[in-house]
Design a protein that fits this description.
The structure holds three protein chains of three kinds. By secondary structure, chain A is mainly alpha-helical. Chain A has one domain. Chain A has five helices and two strands. In chain A, strand 1 and strand 2 form a beta hairpin. By secondary structure, chain B is an alpha/beta fold. Chain B has a single domain, classed as P-loop containing nucleotide triphosphate hydrolases (Rossmann fold). In chain C, strands 1-3-2 form a three-stranded antiparallel beta sheet. Classes of the chains: A mainly alpha, B alpha/beta, C mainly alpha.
Amino acid sequence: MRFRAFVGCAALLGLIWFLGAYMNGHANMFTLVGERRVENPSAEFPAFAVLMLGGLIAFGVASIAFLWLLFRYVSYHYRGGTRAAYTMRRLPRRWEFALRCGALPLCGLAACQICWRALALLCGLVYAFATPERWLPPDAWGEVLYLVTH
Amino acid sequence: MLEIKNVSKNYGRKAALRDVSLSLPRGQLVGLFGENGAGKTTLMKCILGFVRYYGTITLDGEPIGRRNISRIAFATSEHSFFPDLSPLGHAQFYADHFPTFSRKRFDVLMDFFELPLSVASRKLSTGQKNQFEAVLALSQGADYILMDEPFGGNDVFNREDFYKVLLGILGENETVLLSTHLIEEVSGFIGRAVLIHQGRITGDVSMSDLDERGESLIDYVKSAWNYRADRIKKAIDELDEGAE
Amino acid sequence: MVSFEGFRPEGSEPIYLQIVGFVKRGIVSGEIPDGDELPSRRMLSALLGVNPNTVQKACRMLEDEGILVSHAGAKSYVACTPAKREALRGELVVSGAAAAALKLKEMGVTLEEAIKLISKAWEED
């Protein structure tokens, strides 16, 4: 099913973005002093939100794609020179039409929601526990949780 | 008995149906005649529950709902099948959803009309599509079959065949409500004629009564619509005057 | 089995009367023999493209006139004794003549002119 690919891609992109941003932020903590990398005291390590948000764009795109899919499914029943909607709307199984059009898109949207939060959590773990503490704001983990739950 | 009582339907400010009442018992073949926009399609949509309306429509006393909707079938000139699905696929779909679907009737009719079974339905010709639409409606196993101008694009022999096979295949308890412009053509086929004009029922007569009165269906319709043959003379006169 | 192949509905006469007329003419001409079976109502309705009630009406009329007999099992048979056939023939002949006379009268033809016309046409055939 293609939607797994959608969500999978989004996750992958998100991860790559985060890692990229993280590495970038990491690198920015240092400046060159002569030939040695020294910590730059005035540089700031980016906040988690800043690092992560870019990576989540792909999920936004995927979500929009699912909504578009919903629209496509519904409009299929009004196109092609026929109005299959007339058949769908008079079936004894009342919810068949809604199910046929909505099941996949809704699952996709749900999967997006779950995946982005899971990804963010994962990256948050890296952020909060693998980065040197002195670079992080006081409640780094709290920041992570906040992002994941909103 | 399909009872339509005091049904009214407005689309915005336009009144599509005004206080329409009609009773359709089992086993009747009813012709529904009216000009474009008279309300024929709207009436069928109300029966099927596609649109909201004032008034009541009941099937054997019950409102039309999920439990009895399969007793009503629908064939429309707009076509209501799935464009990418083959006729065979449709048979499967109908069998899944309509407990009374008759695969036998489906096969017999598909064979009679010589329709291909395994091509996508959008690839059929217009005439074939009309026939296929009718086949589905007739095979559903419904007690009331609503047909909304089902013959657009079919030649006269096609249509004649169609009436005949319909008469042969319908059981005595199956009701057909057929809306069409072809008044003369269906006058032998139907047992009852209902006229609708600007949303109101303006005529309802059994063909048997017309026989007794010695009145033809066309004459009945003409008088109900106040068809004025003198309009033609008047128009021609006016044109002649202008030419002089 | 009675064949309705030659049946052509036309004009404004009610179809059930036209069916009755077709059967009667068939009996008189000999095409429909005594004892011939009539197709079932449903079959006849489908063959002619005519509402079953109309067929029913025609059959009932034929039964009332004793020309059609229904047995159990929805089968109907033509029942026409030679005497009956003669009577029918007489009926049709009389009504045919009446129709022709009416037509000529409507055109203002006198009786003598009518007789002359008919004799001439008779000889020419």
